[in-house]
Fold this sequence. Notes:
The chain is mainly α. It has one domain. It is built from five helices and two strands, in the order ββααααα. Helix 3 (about 60-70) packs antiparallel against helix 4. The longest helix is centred in the last third of the chain and has 17 residues, at about 95-110. About 20% of the residues are buried.
Amino acid sequence: MVHHSVQGCRPARNSTLLLRPGYYPQNLDRPLPTKDRGILRTIGDACDYMTAMGKQRELRQHWQRAAKLILAKADVLTVSRALELALFVDAKLDVESGARAVKREAEEDWGRGGWR
Length: 116
């Protein structure tokens, strides 16, 4: 089994990949609140989160898949779903915060005359 290091999630500072900006600052499909490090909003946030996790956790299949997708610069929706699943499997997805955010957005839509 090939292990994909999350350490390579972001290109090195002197890498020519920095000349092609756009992938890492992209917003995820939706913000992913975590129980241990705030909210992941961008692919770059996810890379920082994954880089900070312990080696044992990094080697789990769901994080390996997320790292592989990011390294391949997969589409944002696919990466977002892989990250959400990985957080859920590790019991690190803050479902309550996410539910409150969805409720707040719905109330704002309703206040702007939405849902008619």
